[in-house]
Amino acid sequence: MAAPAAGPVFWRRLLGLLPGRPGLAALLGRLSDRLGRSRERRRRRSPWLLLAPLLSPTVPQVTSPPCCLCPEGVHRFQWIRNLVPEFGVSSSHVRVLSSPAEFFELLKGQIKIAKRRVVMASLYLGTGPLEQELVDCLESSLEKSLQSKFPSDLKVSILLDFTRGSRGRKNSRTMLLPLLQRFPEHVRVSLFHTPNLRGLLRLLIPERFNETIGLQHIKVYLFDNNVILSGANLSDSYFTNRQDRYVFLQDCAEIADFFTELVDAVGDVSLQLQGDDTVDVVDGMVHPYKANKRVMDVIHSARTRQQMLHAQTFHSETLLSQEEAAAAGDRRPAPDTWIYPLIQMKPFEIQIDEIVTETLLTEAERGAKVFLTTGYFNLTQAYMDLVLGTRAEYQILLASPEVNGFFGAKGVAGAIPAAYVHIERQFYSEVCSLGQQDRVQLQEYWRRGWTFHAKVAEEHVQAVSAERNTRKPGRLASVFRAHTCLLCRGLTADR
């Protein structure tokens, strides 16, 4: 009985040496608890795991029968529109980017041609020359909009996390101050501060470690009616050698309106950056503990609009094929791609992403393929039970230790990649012990000089495959496949 406790005891002794570092102590404590629980879980694994899907939440019921005029493949996912708005677009308006450089150039190009609005939500804005180039593009566009013969009244709204955006003397806030000082009526910078970090906790936890309490993590970049959905932050590595996902939606007014309203809603419960680098609570700001209603009103309003549009689209006799629409030139082609924005803001008791993800994993049937991609492999126990307890095939793409963003970091952060490898090996050992290695396959992304940050969860509907930089860690599979997702993911205001 002494051996299983050796790991936790070691960590507890280490905690005793850190009386002045509560944030680091909390992190080590969580690792200690996880090590202890993982040993217990391995002893408890049994064939009862196969009952996991039966014990999971049921699929939310569709309030009305599936529309017989909708494309057949949509029926399976129509229940999601009871939770979030359903956006139907033509695949001709969807473009999947492949590289950080392409993402950066698209950001700059879209800022330069924006006439009405630029809305950017990210964890933070970096402080290097590439980030300054982006800020210069914003300044140039604002200046042009005011000096033109017919001013366009361009508005810029930026949403960042308060703790991450305030880290260090030179930070996201100082990068954006010139815009606020020069265009105070046209620029809004909102800094979300998690309500979980307050009082004594806020005073005791040092900078950087306070970011473990909660963050603003929405990543969306929109310009007039064009939208980029991504997991990338506004930082130099995400523009050069940090692989992420990027989906560019062109001329999608309804989606752009929704994300503008969502960012405005989160901005209304956030602190507002002032021209003197202070933050303030502006008149009319919504208290964070009333944020649930503010955000859910945006979701419900968009759902209602899209349901009305759905009826008009599929019950209208003027619906055109893509070829007919191209020839006519004045009406949109028939939608063949469906986008459901999944929102997760747990401090506000909004857990839509969690509900949908668990339901999709629960309902995955034999013959279905589920693809999971993450730079940080750390499944919750519920997700782990669902993966091991269902009959669908799983392909899970992970970051190899060398492409983990913490690889080579100083101090305890340098041990984080090894911790993820340990979790990965534990999970794969359970897969093998259940004889499921043919059904559940793990892959590691590796590319010299790059890091990996992509996070995607999808159930396979239709896909295009391409070889990428991968390698085999032991018996793991070796092909990375890039897919067009049915569900657009990655929206969360607190992680």
TrEMBL record:
GTP-binding keyword on record: no
Which E.C. number(s) belong to this protein? 2.7.8.5
Q: Which CDD domains match?
A: PLDc_PGS1_euk_1, PLDc_PGS1_euk_2
GO terms of biological process kind: cardiolipin biosynthetic process
The entry lists its GO molecular-function terms as:
ATP binding; CDP-diacylglycerol-glycerol-3-phosphate 3-phosphatidyltransferase activity
Q: In which pathway does it act?
A: Phospholipid metabolism; phosphatidylglycerol biosynthesis; phosphatidylglycerol from CDP-diacylglycerol: step 1/2
Compartments where found: Mitochondrion
Any one GO CC term of this protein is: mitochondrion
Its top-level enzyme class, in one word, is: transferase
Describe the family membership recorded for this protein in Swiss-Prot or TrEMBL: Belongs to the CDP-alcohol phosphatidyltransferase class-II family.
Name by which UniProt lists this protein: CDP-diacylglycerol--glycerol-3-phosphate 3-phosphatidyltransferase
